[in-house]
């Protein structure tokens, strides 16, 4: 009987197909096929057998990815002009350099289309990717994670390794702080419409308001930049709120500027809380109360997690799937006690 030639086999399987059939993740398949001396020998033999049965042959870009020959990692950030990402970039750069990798920095402009096209077109140029606050859907992130070793920052997604800065708990602390100062109507200046982080922060604000028995109001969405702070400040004043928590420091700083233009005193007339504690938050007038986040550490941890997936010299322990980093509230002069405006005494009253 003639043997079946390679050309007579069915469609070539993908890395994800092999991983699913073997019951392991895609990074395990990549390591098993690229680094013979690593991992459990039985697991590696099983993966090789399944790959052959499924007619899996790495593409040229896939071979580079599996072998680690590029020695580069792509770091995708939503807004390279936002100081929040400076810390992440510093953290990833330092950790990658220590590991012997180069960093490919990509500015995605808050656009999920750019994120997707980068991961698709450039996948042969890097060994793995780190996505900071990605705008892709959960389903699309999971699909890419099945094909490419990647870690996301500030976006917990099932099946995708992630580093999450616990800002929701920080926003709870912000509301508790403002309530302790006497504020009973607090607004939240929301971030971009497609921001997962903005939605979860609002849920934390709303839940805290319900728990503490105060009114919370959502305004926005606003782009997370200082020039949109003016519109956010005007909207906050229209709600009658006495305090506001902003999606990030840039938006809060823009609000401070607008309040000054309108003669609104901070914190006497309006208290403001930001998020991230970026460089310059303590130089504002007044200095900004904000959530201090371990931003640079998040970048370092993300690289460490990625190296567990792609580095031939990484320990044989299972790769981490999620790391939670705590935040804390740094209180400065932009928040203060709520003092009700005194009403004039009616004429003739005793």
Which properties best describe this structure?
350 residues; alpha/beta; 434 Repressor (Amino-terminal Domain); Rossmann fold; 3 domains; six-stranded parallel β-sheet; six-stranded mixed β-sheet; 12 helices; 12 strands; disordered N terminus
Note down, in words, how this protein is organized.
With 350 residues, this protein is α/β, with parallel strands linked by helices. It folds into three domains: 10-57, Orthogonal Bundle (434 Repressor (Amino-terminal Domain)); 67-165 and 295-326, Response regulator (Rossmann fold); 167-293, Rossmann fold. The protein is built from twelve helices and twelve strands. It has helices at residues 15-22, 26-34, 41-53, 60-67, 83-99, 112-121, 138-147, 167-180, 196-212, 229-238, 249-262, 295-310; strands at residues 72-77, 102-107, 128-132, 150-153, 162-165, 185-189, 215-219, 243-246, 271-276, 289-292, 322-325, 328-330. The strands form two sheets. The chain has a six-stranded parallel β-sheet with strand order 2-1-3-4-5-11, with helices on both faces. The protein has a six-stranded mixed β-sheet with strand order 7-6-8-9-10-12, with helices on both faces. Helix 2 (26-34) packs across helix 4. The N and C termini lie far apart (114 Å).
Query: Helical proportion?
Result: 40-55%
Largest sheet: 6 strands, parallel
Uncertain stretches:
1-9, 60-68, 342-350
Q: State the distance separating the first and last CA atoms.
A: 114 Å
CATH topology of the largest domain, anyone?
Answer: Rossmann fold
Mean pLDDT: 86
Q: At CATH's second level, what is the architecture of the largest domain?
A: 3-Layer(aba) Sandwich
